[in-house]
């Protein structure tokens, strides 16, 4: 990958998300990302503000509240997710259950010259709130976790499964304990599976309508984690990766980033729909070309939608602003939820 692929015309901005490894090649057949003519999100005023995560479940009415939630069995650790219950939430057996948005965050800390920022923590996630506008969906902002560290197992802000919550970029180490490995996905996978089950059970979620979202690192994880094995893959009704796709870059530092491994994961989609979205032409050209090259054309045609945010920003706050793509994605979600 030449450095020129990491820089935007006129901006000469190093894209940390694409160039964390300067040796990371995109496949030679893929179109180069082109951001010429795309707007900045600062040109559109937000119409939504994500609620601040409260330190624990608030007393009284939980509707419209976002709070720190720790899944049963993980209380002895430092793991947590950010749970939001919609403005119209109820918890009565006589009323319909709520669809659930599960979201993985991008790497952090990340910032760039456009003012884009990601903390890498659950409370920094925004996609789910932007897509739901705070109503109609339970929203879980899921963590990536460190390797198994006993009571010290914690939220990891850069990749996953390392021996420290904030590993230096590309410097993931193992604890050398039993069952430990660098980039160990199992703490994150176990927390995800258990959290979805608990939220569905305790908060009137609909297990048949759980949609997996992700930004950047989280977009990769919609497949890498979400389709890791048949047990995890069975959780999801659909997938919304924003700004990256599993297998499109093969030298990310975690194991099994190669195309063959990604194809094995993608086989677990089993016809379920994906809305692939990215800044600039990332999703509509680069990722669309990779997916069309990797999967059978009829599968792509029937189950994939590709869209650009319309912005050049690598920033999940695009969903907090009016745009044609946000409208399209919301309509896609509603159609999905009303399709058997």
Structure description:
The protein is α/β, with parallel strands linked by helices and 340 residues long. The chain is built from 9 helices and 10 strands. It has an 8-stranded mixed sheet with strand order 1-2-6-3-7-8-9-10, sandwiched between helices. Strands 4-5 form a two-stranded antiparallel ribbon. Strand 4 (110-111) and strand 5 (117-118) form a beta hairpin. The longest helix has 17 residues, at 186-202. The relative contact order is 0.16.
- The Rg value, from CA coordinates, equals 19 Å
Structural class: alpha/beta
How is the largest sheet built, in terms of strand order? 1-2-6-3-7-8-9-10
Spans where pLDDT lies below 50 across 5 or more residues: 1-25
Sum up the overall morphology in one term.
Answer: globular
Which series of helices and strands comes N to C? HEEEEEHEHEHHEHEHHEH
Distance from N terminus to C terminus (CA atoms, Å) equals 43 Å
Number of helices: 9
Helix content: 10-25%
Strand content: 15-25%
Biggest pleated-sheet summary: 8 strands, mixed
Count of individual beta strands: 10
In round numbers, the mean pLDDT is: 89
């Amino acid at each position: 990958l030449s450095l020129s692929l990491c820089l935007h015309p006129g901006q000469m901005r190093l894209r940390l998300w694409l160039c964390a490894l300067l040796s990371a090649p995109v496949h030679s057949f893929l179109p180069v990302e082109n951001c010429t003519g795309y707007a900045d999100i600062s040109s559109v005023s937000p119409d939504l503000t994500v609620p601040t995560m409260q330190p624990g479940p608030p007393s009284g009415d939980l509707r419209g509240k976002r709070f720190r939630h720790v899944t049963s069995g993980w209380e002895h650790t430092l793991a947590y997710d950010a749970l939001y219950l919609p403005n119209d939430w109820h918890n009565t057996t006589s009323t319909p259950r709520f669809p659930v948005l599960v979201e993985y965050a991008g790497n952090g800390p990340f910032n760039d010259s456009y003012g884009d920022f990601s903390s890498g923590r659950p409370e920094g996630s925004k996609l789910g709130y932007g897509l739901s506008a705070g109503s109609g969906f339970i929203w879980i902002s899921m963590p990536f976790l460190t390797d198994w560290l006993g009571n010290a197992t914690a939220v990891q802000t850069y990749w996953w499964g390392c021996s420290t919550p904030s590993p230096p970029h590309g410097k993931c180490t193992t604890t050398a304990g039993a069952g430990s490995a660098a980039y160990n996905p199992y703490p994150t996978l176990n927390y995800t599976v258990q959290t979805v089950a608990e939220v569905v059970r305790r908060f009137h979620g609909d297990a048949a309508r759980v949609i997996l979202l992700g930004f950047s690192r989280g977009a990769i994880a919609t497949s890498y984690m979400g389709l890791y094995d048949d047990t995890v893959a069975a959780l999801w009704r659909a997938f919304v990766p924003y700004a990256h796709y599993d297998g499109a870059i093969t030298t990310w530092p975690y194991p099994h980033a190669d195309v063959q491994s990604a194809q094995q994961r993608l086989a677990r989609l089993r016809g379920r729909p994906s809305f692939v979205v990215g800044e600039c032409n990332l999703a509509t050209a680069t990722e669309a070309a990779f997916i069309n090259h990797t999967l059978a054309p009829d599968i792509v045609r029937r189950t994939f939608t590709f869209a650009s945010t319309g912005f050049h920003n690598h920033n999940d706050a695009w969903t907090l602003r009016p745009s044609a793509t946000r409208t399209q994605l919301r309509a896609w979600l509603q159609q999905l939820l009303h399709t058997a």
